[in-house]
Amino acid sequence: MDDNVAGTYADGERLADVGIEGIMRALPHRYPFLMVDRIVDIRANESATGIKCVTASEPHFQGHFPERPIMPGVLIIEAMAQTAAVLVIVSQKIDPTGKLVYFMSINEARFRRPVVPGDVLHIEVTKLRQRDKVWKFEGKAKVDGKVVAEAIYTAMVMDT
Q: At 35, is the secondary structure helix, strand, or coil?
């Protein structure tokens, strides 16, 4: 990937889906903190959908909660952030070496229903605005077409 080649893709241009290998090239996260399995429906500099297959073997279910496993809401928000980070890195053709995407704010987070093992999260992120290295997104996580969580958040691409 080139380092931040602006204008390479037209806004809204459909980009190729990104599988787990591409996600791991774009993000420094690894198990157990890699929260997205695939990115689909990528529209350059505008939107993308992350897919997360929730499994009972994930370590957070050991303590949240042993008798009724529920995916923590903060991890759903993290999945939104990871989906948005891949969108930015792929859209801008940023070389992710030596770069991290940091949260700056999380607003209007709402959790509508529990996410449990066996659910497939569809994490829809849409850019609200971008100024230089700061991006603001709206994220909605859905299971079976129903919103389970949503948030507005701001992140920044930084050198490590």
A: coil
Q: Does any domain span residue 2? A: no
Assigned domain for 1 exists? no
Which residues make beta-bridge pairs with 138? 126, 152
Residue 139, both tokens: 């994220």
User: What range defines the domain where residue 140 resides?
Assistant: 14-159
pLDDT tens figures, 112-145: 999 999 999 999 999 999 999 999 999 999 999 9
60 flagged as catalytic: no
d(CA 148, CA 88): 24
> What CATH number is attached to the domain comprising 81?
3.10.129.10
DSSP type of residue 84: H
d(CA 27, CA 102): 12
Q: Give tens-digit pLDDT for 4-14.
A: 445 579 999 99
CA gap 58, 36 in Å, rounded: 13
Which H or E run contains 43?
strand 38-43
Residue tagged active-site, from 29, 60, 64, 122: 64
Could you give the number of structural domains in the chain?
Answer: 1
- Residue 125 β-bridge partners: 48, 139
Number of neighbouring beta carbons within 10 Å of residue 67: 4
